[in-house]
Amino acid sequence: MARARRIGILTAGGDSPGLNAAIRGIGKAAIDHYDMVVVGFRDGFRGLVEDRSVRLDRQLSGILTVGGTILGTSRDKPHRMLVDGEVVDMTGAVVRTYEKHRLDALVCLGGGGTAKNALRLVRAGLNVITLPKTIDNDIVMTDATFGFATALDVATEAIDRLHSTAHSHHRIIVVETMGHRAGWLTLGAGLAGGADVIAIPEVPYNVESMAEAIRRRVRKGSTFSIVAVAEGARNPEDAAAFAEAEARKRAASTPEEIESAVGALAAVEAAHAGNTLHLAGQLEALTGLESRVTILGYVQRGGTPSAADRLLATRLGSAGADLINEGVFGVMVAARGEGSEPVPLDQVAGKRKLVPLDHSWIVAARHVGTCLGD
Ligand code: F6P
Predict the structure, then answer these.
(1) Distance of CA 16 from the midpoint of ligand 1 (Å)
(2) Residues facing 129 on adjacent strands
(3) Do 337 and 279 share a domain, yes or no?
(4) Relative to the CA of 231, which ligand 1 atom is closest?
(5) Does the residue 370 lie in any domain?
(6) Ligand 1 neighbourhood includes 301 CB (under 6 angstroms)
(7) Most buried of 102, 213, 218, 224, CB within 10 angstroms?
(8) Does residue 138 fall inside a structural domain?
(9) Is 175 in the same domain as 239?
(10) How far is the centre of ligand 1, averaged over its atoms, from the C-alpha of 288 (Å)?
(11) Which residues are known catalytic residues?
């Protein structure tokens, strides 16, 4: 097979620190090391559909330390794109843009959803690889995802800072972190920041157990507590309703079934909004301690990437250029120890890496006396 000469790059899904470092890593390796031409597409898959592109070269300098993505991003899916108010399958338009630019490969930087979309494009005949990006750390078959280390640092620093104010006012501070449906960010930051209670989606919480852990601290003289709660953490009843809605969506096959299952899942998600505030109120009532809520939100995703994320994104980007040069497609460039490995996209798409209940962070949290809400 002829060597790849022209590659396209796009960033999709939620932005994440390290995206620009990855664009630079793959772009510079492709141009400087392999003498390829690199085209960036704007705003995720939408830029491919609408053929909005930029030739990347000089723009690759000076972006290593910059947060966000210079290409812009979106959550658009090629096969279900909103066009003039209608949901349309735009896969054909993607293929046309790919051919028009005479691309030999397309690199999609994104999370689990992006891997799914990329796999669809592989099945439509395109040469695609992905790089694992997300602050949620929930992509299977890779040791790490870029964005996570930075978000972990930000969330940990926030928990550190909340300690002194909670202590001074003898309050419970409930801090909500992102992570989507996985608890990596909350567990990691909670453990690193010394939270007293940590609630993650993998361990449905019992509010009475949490309250008792806080009361126990009061009895021992600590009249404040930090409660780290993942945005996806739920009590057992809500967790069961959510699992049922998810299973229904997975099982749906006809367009009508899919639409109805997506609606049902959205309703369960909507009912979950405000859960952290509700939990804080319950803890206040059960312990008699005043409570406050801090929702960290997008601050966890913004800003300059940490050194760890810059390194990971740069080495995975450069490994991606190697794979394209070798003609290896249909894979995610996974981090493996100090190196990397191509993993077939069908082993990644549609899967989610949750925190195993015997993970060392869970074991350590329990051993140091952190309440996990169960
Ligand atoms: O996947 C990254 C993430 O930040 C999740 O932690 C969060 O649930 C979600 O994106 C927020 O998405 P949006 O940017 O669409 O509000």
Answers:
(1) 10
(2) 107, 331
(3) no
(4) 8
(5) no
(6) yes
(7) 224
(8) yes
(9) yes
(10) 34
(11) 136
pLDDT tens series, the chain, 374 aa: 577 799 999 999 999 999 999 999 999 999 999 999 999 999 999 999 999 999 999 999 999 999 999 999 999 999 999 999 999 999 999 999 999 999 999 999 999 999 999 999 999 999 999 999 999 999 999 999 999 999 999 999 999 999 999 999 999 999 999 999 999 999 999 999 999 999 999 999 999 999 999 999 999 999 999 999 999 999 999 999 999 999 999 899 998 898 899 999 999 999 999 999 999 999 999 999 999 999 999 999 999 999 999 999 999 999 999 999 999 999 999 999 999 999 999 999 999 999 999 999 999 999 999 999 99
Supply the range of the domain harboring residue 199.
152-300
In angstroms, the CA 314 to CA 23 distance is 8
Q: Are strands 291-295 and 172-177 parallel, antiparallel or unpaired?
A: parallel
- Tokens found for residue 326: 């070798």
Size (the chain), residues:
374
Residue nearest to atom 2 of ligand 1 (CA): 14
Residues 194 and 172 in one domain: yes
C-beta neighbour count of 319 within 10 angstroms: 22
Ligand 1 pocket test target in 15, 69, 77, 136 with most atoms within 8 Å of CB: 136
Residue tagged 């992905």 (tokens) = 130
285 and 169 assigned to the same domain: yes
CA distance 149 to 203: 22
